[in-house]
Records
---
Amino acid sequence: MSRPTLTEHILLSQAAAPHATGELSRILARLSLAGRMISQRILNAGCLGEHGDTGEVNVQGEDVKMLDILSNDIFIRVFDTLSSVAGIASEEMEDIHLYDDWEMGKYFVLFDPLDGSGNIDIDGSLGSIFAVHARPEGDGPITQEDFLQSGKNQVAAGYILYGPATVFVYTAGQGAVSGFTLDRSVGEFFLTHPNMTIPDGGGHYSVNESNQTKWESDVVDLVESYRLGKTGLGKRGARYTGAFVADFHRTLLKGGVFMYPGLKDRPRGKLRYLYEASPLSMIAVRAGGKATDGVRDILDLKPEALHERCPLYVGSKSDVDYVMSRLKG
Ligand code: P6P
């Protein structure tokens, strides 16, 4: 059976959208290009001596790896010639970046160019995460404030998983979630996971249990109920890779819940809202799952800062409902 390519899927989706101009389609095609370029760069990084640190510390206070910068540069470049993108925001850049022809741009792209970069030198899975927002109406100059939008307003969202295979997963408009696998021999993504829906039951709980001493008591009790199999939801194995995209992808395919709770010394947790929690929560919700910060739906949150963090519990509906029932809020 010949599988549609990602390009064909984007064009078919555009044809089905009455007011589509093709601008979003070109953004998605450029995201596909960035994913293919980064995937190839990761494959060759070890041989090219591109595994190490840059010696820099980013706005997040994290050591910056060479591949973090190389991936960020690829994202900056792929949108440079696209008039529909007014500006971008990245985990690796303190401020927004506007392109020269920003006045013509209708969209913003926000991204984590290389998520899980602690896995680079152990040859573990990595990912890129992206969110596309519409530029707010108005002719005035674009400010950071324009990027601070709720997840429910995302025009498109998704991720690229750099694992043994490279997989591109996205949702656009009110559409379903679709997954594509890269065939390196022809440099194309092919549809391998049509209409992805998150199983309700089974799967795993995924959390960094070494943080237990930093959790509030309700979180400690919640995670223990999973560890002891006392959730009433049935068996859940434990899995944690240290790369959000990889842990999320497993949860999307197998079910269960991924958790990054707030910590006593870091109540907002670690994951950033605009380009990590928000886009993958959109994927989970469109696939029939749920996502919360422990109190509210992730997609309803309104960030007040570009790199704002939020606690995150995302996965199967039953698991997230159970999490909410156990947290004091
Ligand atoms: P910890 C990677 O640095 C990341 O941002 C996510 O990809 C991942 O889920 C999380 O941090 C891991 O953090 O504290 O468990 O090492």
---
Amino acid sequence: MIPPQLLLASNNAGKLAEFRALLAPLGCAVLAQGDLQIPEAAEPFDTFLENALAKARHASALAGMPALADDSGLCVPALGGAPGVQSARYAGEPRSDARNNALLLERLHAGLDRSAWFACTLVLVNHPEDPDPLVAQGRWPGRIVEAPRGDGGFGYDPLFEPVATSLFEPVPSGLTAAQLAPAVKNAISHRALALQGLVAALRGRSA
Ligand code: IMP
């Protein structure tokens, strides 16, 4: 069943708008964690899945309603999957996109495979002890370029050059994610893919 309302375990205004736009047509209203004074959960785990599940359970327990959480980051196989779940604080605290990007370039020295992907995992629990959470994942494949390019986006976008995985994908070649129009990025990113999966799974459950 599609819950008539759920709590988004995030205070990111951009994510809230995206989730609202996609879930409203399903009759599902999205509330923000900050509106209910719910503190952010710890993210101590090694996988996006475990962190998203912990965040969803935490928010659902405190709010007493279904909760949706996401966790995302950049994975570089040549670095053992790093920055991975440490993406936001790869170069330590305080968090800095510029220092994270500089450290990534330093570690990904010449000769290493520059393939990478952005990953996003979404978890929806109907209650804190839900034994069967709904999980949706998105992967956006690409490669890490040699020097940052572009002013758009955030995080590792200036270093990430997406590769098209289908002939019909609107991926302009040779541009980093920070050089893409926001509407293009939002249509093809890891978050978009995970959200599409979530909506499809919700529609399937309502059948
Ligand atoms: P969060 O899951 O939204 O908190 O993202 C964790 C971290 O992953 C961010 O702080 C960024 O460093 C990185 N990240 C996640 N998604 C993106 C993206 O779309 N572009 C660039 N960096 C991202």
